[in-house]
């Protein structure tokens, strides 16, 4: 099938894009890497009358550090962020998360902002940003709104982005001295996950857990944070037994997805396994930092 007809604009600045978004109203949609939107257009699952292409706006695709904050432009390609030494050193969880997003050709076009705005429940980037407690910077003709990650993803393909707004930037606090891991189970490498787990671990000087974060994705409309598990790990030396005991506190009632091909029962089995692997891998990497 071919897309329904649409009018196409390619603004050169964010201001121009916001003007267009306001003047074209609810029939307009922005396009970033097109990796999700183009198939939706082709299948006529989306039929915008106007497409506003963000690809020619350089100010939206920079990664820079200001003090302890990393600013990531929404149009930063996933491949660019994955190859970025700044991201690898300062935001290791984002690096490991992006390794699991699609394939080299989809990452070459797909953007970080597009992935977050699309809000596929199985996408890795919303889980990563939740683990980092990142801030999403939304711009419109009315000004700027800063939305914390835990208020940004609202449900399946649903975010806090209001009509007239563009996700312009993601702001994340640098975390250079911690271990991180994103582990997932998918049918083939690059496929969307059946369950994923993102973990961040930082250690005290004596090797015990100073702080940890655990997010499980692809099991509910939004990624799930499990603070009870990570609180139980604080002050402990990591071992398989310690992590397994803490994971007993994972509230599996929060898992929701139950499809014909992947049952809720199966997700409740693999979710904790992914979480255990992610926590132990993050811990090993954190230990490596101390050596
Ligand atoms: C074969 C294949 C495999 C894939 N596997 C994975 C995977 O394993 N994990 C994963 O996470 N993703 C996967 N994806 C999806 C991919 O990561 C997409 O890049 C991503 O979902 C959308 O990013 P995009 O830049 O292409 O956005 P687009 O497709 O251009 O846009 C997606 C949606 O977001 C909106 N949007 C885009 N940018 C903005 C913005 N700045 N502000 C407001 N709204 C915006 C658009 O209007 C549209 O509704 C896969 C895609 C393909 C084709």
UniProtKB/TrEMBL annotation:
Q: Which InterPro entries match?
A: CO_DH_flav_C, CO_DH_flav_C_dom_sf, Diverse_Substr_Oxidored, FAD-bd_PCMH, FAD-bd_PCMH-like_sf, FAD-bd_PCMH_sub1, FAD-bd_PCMH_sub2, Mopterin_DH_FAD-bd
User: Where in the sequence is the signal peptide annotated?
Assistant: none
Q: Which UniProt keywords apply?
A: FAD, Flavoprotein, Oxidoreductase
The superkingdom listed in its UniProt entry is: Bacteria
SMART domains (UniProt xref): CO_deh_flav_C (SM01092)
List, for all copies, the residue spans of the domain called FAD-binding PCMH-type.
1-177
A Gene Ontology MF term for this entry?
FAD binding
Write down the Pfam families for this protein, in alphabetical order: CO_deh_flav_C, FAD_binding_5
Protein name according to UniProt: Molybdopterin dehydrogenase
Organism encoding this protein: Nitratireductor aestuarii
């Amino acid at each position: 099938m071919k897309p329904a007809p649409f009018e196409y604009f390619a603004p050169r600045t964010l201001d121009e894009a916001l003007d267009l978004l306001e003047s074209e109203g609810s029939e307009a949609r922005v396009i970033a890497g097109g990796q999700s939107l183009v198939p939706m257009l082709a299948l006529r699952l989306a039929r915008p009358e106007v497409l506003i292409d963000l690809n020619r706006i350089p100010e939206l695709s920079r990664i820079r550090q200001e003090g302890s904050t990393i600013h990531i432009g929404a149009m930063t390609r996933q491949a660019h962020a994955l190859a970025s030494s700044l991201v690898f050193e300062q935001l290791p969880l984002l690096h490991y998360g992006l390794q699991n997003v699609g394939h080299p050709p989809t990452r070459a076009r797909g953007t970080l902002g597009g992935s977050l705005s699309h809000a596929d429940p199985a996408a890795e980037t919303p889980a990563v940003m939740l683990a980092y407690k990142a801030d999403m910077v939304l711009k419109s003709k009315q000004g700027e709104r800063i939305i914390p990650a835990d208020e940004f993803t609202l449900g399946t393909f649903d975010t806090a982005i209001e009509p007239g707004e563009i996700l312009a930037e993601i702001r994340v606090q640098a975390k250079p001295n911690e271990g991180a891991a994103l582990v997932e189970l998918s049918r083939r490498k690059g496929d969307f996950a059946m369950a994923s787990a993102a973990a961040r671990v930082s250690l005290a000087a004596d090797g015990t857990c100073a702080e940890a974060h655990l997010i499980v994705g692809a099991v509910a409309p939004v990624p799930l944070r499990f603070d009870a598990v990570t609180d139980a790990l604080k002050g402990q030396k990591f071992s398989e037994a310690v992590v397994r005991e803490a994971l007993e506190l994972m509230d599996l009632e929060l898992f929701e997805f139950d499809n014909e091909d992947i049952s809720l029962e199966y997700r409740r089995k693999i979710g904790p396994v992914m979480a255990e692997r992610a926590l132990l891998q993050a811990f090993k990497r954190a230990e490596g930092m101390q050596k």
